[in-house]
Structure formats: structure tokens, C-alpha cells
Amino acid sequence: MTEAARAVAEGLFVTDGENAVLLGARCEGCGAVYFPRPLSCRNPACHEKRLTAVELPGEGTLISYTVQRYRPPPLFRMDDWAPYAIGLVSLGDGIEVMGMLSGFELDHIAIGSPVRVICAPLYTDDAGAPVHTYQFAPAPGR
Ligand SMILES: [Zn+2]
Fold this sequence. Notes:
By secondary structure, the protein is mostly beta strands. The protein has strands at residues 6-7, 13-15, 20-27, 33-34, 51-55, 59-68, 84-90, 96-101, 114-124, 130-138.
């Protein structure tokens, strides 16, 4: 990732400036996949607990969403705030990730829509540098 595409949190994703690849982790004991990467496996029945970094698929399916119509309290930062949607996306193999939706009309979001993972600016930090996050944008049908 370039300096011009600083991420909102370290180790969350890598990007070429347009598309993003989410960085998750797979437990070597039970095979559970996590995003974001936890310190160790959270499966109480698992005794292995060692995690290996994995890149998650770049496309998935929207399985639920909600529209945020009031401004969240401080700590959350977003330039030019406006209502936005947060979606729950299935990336396959039981991997489900939440994130902001991009490029959808808020009143016309369809469960089951194919989405792809993108990188988008979220806010400008106090030093004037753009801070980016991953979002889910409509993808051509698969
Ligand atoms: Zn495990």
C-alpha cells in the first residue's frame, strides 16, 4: 500500500488504490477463518490456536444490510458525512464480513447482490492526509 492510501487500521487490507484485499487469518487447528485477524483462535473447542494469515476473496454476496441515518459519535470519522449503508457480505466458505457499502442507492439495496471489495477514502487526518477503508461496491453478476 502506498503512503497515499493509508488504511484506517493497520493490517486490515492491502490495496492497489482501487481494489482491496482483506487480510484475515485461518486457524491451523480447526480451520476457522477470522476477519479482522484476532490474537488467537476463538473456538473454545480448538486446542491448536495457531493462526496463518490469509487473503480473503475479493468478491462476495450481500446477505444483510442496514442504513445509518444519524451521525455516529466521535471516534468515527468520515468527510462529508451523509447517511450510508453497512452490509454483511458472505465471501464464501462461511466467511462473513461487515463493511460500508459504496455505489448503492440507499433505498434500492437488494439482498443477494454480488459485491466486490474496494478501497475508498474515508476521512482526512489532522495532518491533511487521506485515510482509506475497505468498502463493498456492486459487482457484475457472477
Ligand atoms: Zn482453531
